[in-house]
Specification:
Length: 91
């Protein structure tokens, strides 16, 4: 939010002012494309290690702040990874 102060001066040197508030809203949501699905087998300890998940691709008209991956959790032989897209503050 920005405040603009307008001032007018007449030929006699008298002035008057008013203020205007300008609010810019980013109403274009960010986009994210996930990496391809990955299927791996478990090891003897029933875990999967060294899994290469890839990297999602994201974009936004106001810039991408970050694309952190959430912590993984394992459920039987499936490994789930959740991606969160964090936009510019105010989105």
């Amino acid at each position: 939010m920005t405040t603009v102060i307008w001032t007018v001066t007449d030929n006699a040197g008298s002035t008057a002012t008013c203020t205007q508030t300008v609010t810019v809203t980013d109403n274009v949501p960010p986009t994210i494309t996930c990496p391809a699905d990955v299927a791996v087998n478990t090891n003897s300890g029933c875990t999967a290690t060294g899994v290469v998940l890839g990297t999602p691709v994201s974009s936004d008209n106001c810039g991408v702040a970050s694309v952190p991956g959430r912590r993984c959790r394992q459920h039987q032989q499936w490994l789930y990874r959740y991606w969160c897209r964090l936009g510019t503050p105010g989105q």
